[in-house]
């Protein structure tokens, strides 16, 4: 499934294989894409076969994956990872959320997050299990702050941060653990409804 708000995709241009060697950040990303874990209940997919370039505010970003609400992009110059989404009803209102300072940190954060999601899903079906979820939520947030402090602030250089939102959603039971989230958006798309989503 593509992101619910996919108008911005019209601005993406495919990257050919020769371009992959042009910058350190792009080469670094391309060599590690297969390490990233996807997640079907939020339509999270990383692009192994085709990357895209997107120009925003006179900067080039590499588009390397998406989930239901937006796209994951890499700043070609700084190597920082962001989440790209449409912030309002205007197609031109593209916004970024800061994810991580490097590709390596993003891979660690993403894969650890979905290990915790798997544990929460497993614990939810264990009737006689005393849940230790609160401990694991505290632990993952603490670990994230140690690994990439900038990623867990309220903002980074004027932009909201992605991971505090996701860890909050998971700890408070809002993060999708079933296919219901996808089915809901698929129904809206089939009805021709198109909204704009921030987080």
UniProtKB/TrEMBL annotation:
<protein>
    <submittedName>
        <fullName>Uncharacterized protein</fullName>
    </submittedName>
</protein>
<dbReference type="Pfam" id="PF14435">
    <property type="entry name" value="SUKH-4"/>
</dbReference>
<dbReference type="InterPro" id="IPR025851">
    <property type="entry name" value="SUKH-4"/>
</dbReference>
């Amino acid at each position: 499934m593509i992101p619910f708000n996919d108008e911005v995709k019209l601005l993406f241009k495919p990257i050919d294989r020769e371009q992959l060697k042009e910058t350190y950040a792009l080469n670094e990303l391309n060599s590690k894409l297969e390490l990233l874990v996807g997640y079907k209940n939020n339509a999270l997919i990383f692009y192994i076969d085709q990357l895209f370039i997107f120009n925003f505010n006179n900067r080039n970003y590499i588009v390397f994956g998406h989930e239901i609400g937006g796209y994951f992009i890499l700043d070609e110059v700084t190597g920082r990872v962001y989440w790209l989404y449409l912030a309002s009803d205007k197609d031109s209102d593209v916004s970024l959320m800061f994810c991580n300072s490097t590709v390596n940190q993003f891979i660690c954060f993403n894969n650890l997050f979905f290990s915790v999601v798997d544990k929460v899903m497993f614990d939810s079906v264990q009737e006689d299990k005393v849940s230790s979820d609160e401990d694991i939520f505290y632990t993952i947030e603490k670990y994230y702050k140690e690994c990439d402090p900038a990623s867990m602030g309220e903002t980074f250089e004027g932009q909201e941060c992605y991971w505090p939102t996701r860890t909050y959603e998971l700890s408070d039971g809002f993060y999708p653990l079933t296919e219901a989230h996808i089915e809901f958006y698929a129904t809206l798309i089939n009805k021709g409804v198109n909204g704009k989503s921030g987080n």
